[in-house]
TrEMBL record:
Keywords: DNA-binding, Transcription, Transcription regulation. It comes from the Bacteria. This is AraC-like DNA-binding protein. SMART domains: HTH_ARAC. Transmembrane segments: none annotated. GO terms for molecular function: DNA-binding transcription factor activity; sequence-specific DNA binding. Residues 176-266 form the HTH araC/xylS-type domain. InterPro entries: AraC_XylS_family_regulators, HTH_AraC.
């Protein structure tokens, strides 16, 4: 099995909107199904050869599909991606509050959905996919993405400051703050915050906190496994803010479809979770 994992530092003008940018190439895997897990970022993927085959989307009402380029919104159920044992592409993790600036829509418009890049961005999206796939090296591929996204960016498009602050508080606290506390801090009622927050991000404040907490926990677990350390699920549960190991396991099943150790057995080493390069927890969000 061969693998390549390339981390890219994005253009300064994009750093508010793109949390990570990676190129990946992995070959010689056993064909199988990968779980794209809930995370605090939207997924932006462009494949370099075979399309991405999504057998089940987070929204069960959405039909399976094949994508040369895909944007995935925030979600609370796993996506199931069928792979033939080889995958090559690049992926950006977009901040939900940057969706307006780069995609022209609030992240809430993409909640639970996977959308083809050209369907979302029109001719600009088709150009982006074509240019990435035509480039011959990683610098050229990332340059193509950045040039097209920057050309169509709307830097003055921003959500309500209260929503942005609520998202910052939720992520900074690792999903540990109660919704009431977040609402108090931004000066809104629980109900008003819930409505505005969901419309902007696609998640309720409570769901966002669950996703943030889960994301941190699964990255920590992957890092432990990748380093050959004891998994210590009880300790992980406490460190991540769960009541106990049973709570951690329930949430893991609800958000990934598998218990923690089952997820590790199925996914560890799969490139799109960022674990294969020994950078467990550093890379991937949706797919």
């Amino acid at each position: 099995m061969g693998s390549e994992w390339v981390e890219h530092r994005v253009h300064p003008a994009l750093r508010r909107y793109v949390a990570t940018a990676v190129g990946y190439r992995q070959e010689g895997l056993a064909p199988g199904v990968h779980r794209g897990l809930p995370s605090p970022h939207l997924t932006f993927v462009v494949t370099l050869d075979e399309p991405l085959v999504v057998a089940a989307h987070p929204d069960p009402q959405q039909a399976p599909g094949r994508y040369d380029g895909l944007v995935g919104g925030l979600h609370t159920r796993p996506a199931l991606i069928v792979h033939p044992g080889r995958q090559v592409g690049l992926q950006l993790a977009l901040t939900p509050l940057g969706a307006r600036a780069l995609l022209g829509v609030p992240a809430g418009a993409l909640a639970g959905l996977d959308v083809a890049v050209p369907d979302l961005l029109g001719a600009r999206g088709a150009e982006l996919v074509d240019r990435v796939r035509a480039a011959t090296d990683w610098p050229g591929r990332f340059a193509a993405v950045e040039q097209v996204l920057l050309r169509g960016a709307h830097p003055h498009a921003a959500p309500a400051p209260e929503v942005a602050e609520a998202w910052r508080l939720t992520t900074a606290a690792g999903g540990r703050l109660r919704v009431r506390e977040v609402a108090d801090r931004v000066g809104w009622s629980d109900r008003h915050l819930g409505e505005r927050f969901r419309a902007e991000t696609g998640l309720t404040p409570k769901a966002a906190a669950r996703v943030v907490r889960f994301d941190r926990a699964r990255r920590a677990l992957a890092a432990r496994a990748g380093a050959g350390r004891a998994l210590d699920l009880a300790g992980l549960a406490v460190a991540a803010g769960y009541a106990d190991q049973a709570h951690l396991t329930r949430e893991w099943r609800a958000l990934s479809g598998l218990p923690p150790t089952g997820w590790l057995a199925a996914e560890l080493g799969f490139v799109q979770d960022g674990t294969a390069a020994g950078a467990a927890g550093s890379g991937h969000d949706h797919l």
